[in-house]
Design a protein that fits this description.
The chain is built from 32 helices and nine strands. It has a seven-stranded mixed beta sheet with strand order 3-4-5-2-1-8-9, sandwiched between helices. A two-stranded antiparallel sheet has the order 6-7. The chain is globular. 40% of the residues are buried. It binds adenosine-5'-triphosphate and magnesium ion (MG).
């Protein structure tokens, strides 16, 4: 059980983990049990990339909509019949939240009777054993795997197996799904499943496919890493014409799709995570007629995907125009423009742009300009106390990067000359007396700084990356980009290293104990004795605070005495 909690935490991306927390919190607030199901569980176990998160709740999933929208979810579709939400959670995490249900098929081709059910009953209506597992996300049983059909064994054996003999008859779209999973994972159908599949094909079960399932499968195709491979398999099996009568592999812009996936991979290596589904559909249907395209769009349940597909060309066109305008007259302005644009838009333009200026600028954005970050003199910046702890650090780092990009700072000397006036004043010197306790520690400040600065020299590259990360992040935040774009920093944008030099710039302890030495300078005799006894027990400033009222009392008493004498 513990293993699955660990696997869950290590296999999901940070955004997916946040998405899980959001859904779990919403379900808990609504008093519903919630489980991770379907492909997410399968892929957690197999180690394949987790494309989307499928949740199942015991209760009406539609009731979670408002709560999730408040947390930043975008609802792509809400199906009243199955009480399922298709949504995109912050960080572009695609998810589906369905009500646990049982399905009774009474007549071939007719939709099943749907009844709310328990999670175990819900697993019985699933397509394949490897997809019929659930992982509890509930308090008390978190991480518990429910696997009534021994899907884990089929994962081990790398087999696609239906749950029962009527699987394809009840829902012929499962034949299309079988082809898709088999192509994606390179897993064969289990022997009896293959026999049922062949017989389903021969007997034309596919004629009974429901229109909703067609739309769902078109959509799923858009998220395949090897969409062309799946499309070819569909064509071979006779499923492609089911999705659309005129769709063939000849309608695909193979070169465009290939370039898209190649550039996407390069962007992933740079730390971006562009959502390519809309662009994939664009290339898969490049040579299809307008009517067929609008039929396909109408069938797709996720409306946000349809909108993105419709807009993909126009958005790229607008970005291209901006890249050719004055707005992108200098490298720094181009950098800012491209950093603020949605990564999927940059990607699509990178593979479709025909203007040389545009392709050249995007190429520089991906390659040459990134190398300029190495020129940011980080060790010297640390020595100048320009560290991430400064509130203005992001801006300074960004400005230096942009000036370097434009060639306005041409050498290290010039850069340092620019930076020097921006350095914060040095921290106050350590107190003269008080080489004990805190004061002694404070004295250790400067060497620590120097050591850290030395360290910085060794890690120049990482720190440079960090500075550009900050720069990029600052540029992004200024440009008020969409949350999804903002969530995709350049690889340099990993915030952790920014925090690392922290010990360098912690002058606070040096300044804080200032009141303490006062006590140490002229302690009264009894005070001296007491401080010896209690040394190390209380912070100096507290002792000082305690001391003052006592001193006041003493002077008051002395004054009274004097008055009395008079
Ligand atoms: P991936 O998302 O990686 O393509 P997946 O298995 O999660 O794979 P989805 O289409 O996201 O596929 O569906 C989620 C789950 O819903 C499936 O794992 C399966 O359990 C169930 N499911 C989807 N379609 C069907 C179907 N036609 N019949 C039965 N169960 C289905
Ligand atoms: Mg899924």
């Amino acid at each position: 059980m513990a293993d699955y909690i660990y696997t869950l935490e290590t296999r999901l991306s940070p955004d997916q983990q946040k998405a899980v927390t959001l859904v779990v919190d919403a379900a808990r607030a609504a008093g519903m049990n919630v489980y991770l199901t379907g492909g997410a569980v399968r892929d957690i176990i197999t180690g394949f990339p987790i494309r989307d998160l499928d949740f199942t709740v015991q209760g009406n999933a539609l009731k979670l909509q408002k709560d999730l929208e408040r947390s930043g979810a975008v609802i792509g579709d809400a199906d009243d019949e199955t009480r399922t939400l298709l949504l995109t959670l912050p960080g572009s995490v695609r998810a589906e939240i369905a009500m646990a249900r049982s399905e009774q098929y009474e007549k071939t081709g007719k939709p099943p009777q749907i009844t709310p059910a328990t999670i175990i009953e819900d697993l019985r209506r699933r397509d394949f054993t490897v997809n019929a597992m659930a992982l509890s996300l509930n308090e008390g049983s978190r991480g518990l795997l429910m696997d009534p059909f021994n899907g884990a064994a089929d994962i081990e054996a790398k087999l696609i197996r239906v749950l029962h003999n009527y699987a394809f008859l009840e829902d012929p779209s499962r034949m299309i799904r079988a082809t898709r999973f088999s192509t994606r994972f390179h897993w064969p159908l289990e022997e009896r499943t293959q026999a049922r599949y062949d017989s389903g094909k021969e007997n034309g079960y596919i004629e009974y496919i429901r229109s909703g399932s067609i739309g769902y499968e078109i959509e799923q195709l858009a998220y395949e890493d090897d969409a062309l491979g799946v499309l070819k398999a569909y064509e071979k099996e006779g499923w492609l014409k089911v999705l659309n009568g005129h769709w063939t592999t000849a309608k695909v812009d193979v070169a465009g799709l290939g370039a898209l996936m190649k550039t996407r991979q390069q962007m992933i290596e740079m730390g971006y995570a562009p959502d390519v589904a809309a662009a994939v559909l664009y290339f898969l249907t490049a040579r299809l007629g307008d009517k067929d395209i609008s039929d396909l769009r109408r069938a797709i349940p996720r409306k946000d995907l349809v909108e993105a597909w419709k807009d993909v060309e126009d958005n790229a066109h607008t970005l291209a125009k901006r890249l050719m305008s004055k707005e992108a007259a200098t490298p720094s302005r181009t950098w800012q423009l491209l950093s603020a644009a949605r990564p999927e838009m940059v990607l699509f333009l990178a593979v479709t742009a025909r203007q040389q200026t545009v392709t050249h600028k995007i190429k520089n954005f991906f390659t040459k300009w990134r190398q300029v970050q190495q020129k940011i003199p980080l060790p010297e910046m640390t020595e100048l106390r320009i560290t991430p702890q400064m509130p203005e650090y992001a801006k300074i780092a960004n400005d230096v990067f942009l000036l370097l990009l434009d060639g306005k700072l041409r050498s290290r000397t010039e850069t340092l000359k620019y930076l020097k006036p921006l350095a914060p004043p040095p921290p106050p010197p350590p107190p003269a007396v008080g080489k004990r306790g805190r004061a002694a520690k404070a004295g250790a400040g400067p060497p620590a700084q120097a050591a850290a600065a030395g360290k910085g020299k060794g890690k120049g590259t990482d720190q440079a990356a960090t500075a550009v990360a900050v720069a990029a992040a600052a540029a992004k935040s200024r440009a008020a980009v969409t949350p999804s774009a903002a969530a995709k920093p350049v690889p340099a944008a990993k915030p952790e290293p920014v925090a690392k030099p922290a010990p360098v710039a912690k002058p606070a302890p040096v300044a804080k104990p200032a009141p303490a030495p006062k006590a140490a300078v002229k302690p009264s005799k009894p005070e001296k004795a007491r401080s010896k006894k209690t040394a190390g027990k209380k912070p100096a400033h507290k002792k000082e605070a305690k001391k003052r009222p006592a001193a006041k009392k003493a002077t008051k008493a002395a004054k009274k005495k004097k008055k009395g004498k008079k």
